[in-house]
Structure prediction request, 136 residues.
Amino acid sequence: MGARKRISAEARKEALKQVSFAKLKNVPTSPRKMRLVVDMIRGMEVFRALGVLKFSNKEAAARVEKLLRSAIANWEQKNERKAETGELFVSSISVDCATTLKRMRPAPQGRGYRIRKRSNHVTIFVDTLSTNESQN
Prediction:
């Protein structure tokens, strides 16, 4: 690895130490279905977002709820105190495509139809409201 690349990688690692986040990788649902759930809580206060996810009918909501609880726990660990109501919010959340499993289904006249079983990665960043205001 070149010196310039190593320096930028170290700077990126130092920047990630300041923020609290959680990642969920290789979730076996399509990214499109996961984005429907993620869009419901984007920018929301975390305890309100937990309530929205708890009462959502979507199957992906349970996975995102568990991920959000993990991000809150990561924030509490870094700041060495409990999160209070109205303090934390979802600063950013993203869903990216992961690997696709390709399968074949038998079709008429000797053909085969391709089935794509998609999966995704979810990343959630949690931050305090005061930190976001000071950056703007």
